[in-house]
Amino acid sequence: MEPTRLDRMLKRASVLVTATLATLAVHGAAYAQQDQTPSAPPAASQPASEEAQVPPPPPASEATPAPPSAPEATPAPPPGYGPPPSYGPPPGYGPPPGYPYRYHYGYQPGYYPPPHYAHPIGSTYRPFMFGFGLGVSSLSYSATDVSAHEVALSYALHLGFGITPRWMVLLAMDGAWGEFTFNDPAGLTDPNVLYGKRSTALTTYTAGAQFFMMRWLYSRLGLGLACLDWTSDRGDGSDCSGQAAIAGVGAEFLQTHSTSLAAELAALVARFPESRSIGDRNDVWYSIGVNLLVNLF
To answer: Do residues 249 and 267 make contact, with C-beta atoms less than 8 angstroms apart?
Structure first.
């Protein structure tokens, strides 16, 4: 029996559906196989040119020398000779003479300027010092049966050489000048005996020491010779056979790097054992006064 048109259409549709299902089955199997295969390419896929670019090893004569071996460790010192565990850098050295510890220089701890630098303010170490001053004092003399005193002008000239920050050798000239009226009648006939109104100057030349008790306070003591000079309308005279001693204390109330201003109270005594200027062979002169001194160093 010849198939009808409907049978032919169903047969064609079934063939198409079977072919479509078979194609879908083949594609599904291929996708499943791709999921199970590793994604990394095989080692054989690397190009052979990269292996050719690797440089050959250098010959034995040009081989890199081996690094030097580390130095041997220094053996530890025996017990009792090593530094303590908390040992740090050594402390700074102290200042040279004339540089007080409390003075701040602005440098590293323990460093002090060399001696050729300017002396710091307040330093008492002075290799060389020159001072001069004026003031007021009382000038007196005393003999066996006569004595007198007058207000006088005092003067001073000092030359010092530093030994230590506190001690200084001092060469000094100190004196006082005033006017006296002498009434010894022997002066009418003897020109060496003082008579009438005289301008009299007592000057001492001493060598001694000056000691700084504090940064600004000092004292001094000296021994030496004394000269007595006088002048008037009757003539001039002098006697330099005296023996002198002087003591003083001063305060430097103003100090800079190279100068100082001080007020000094000084007392001096001079004895003229062979003089007859006042009519006696044991004339003694005194002076106590205050000077304003300018010191340069």
So the answer is: no
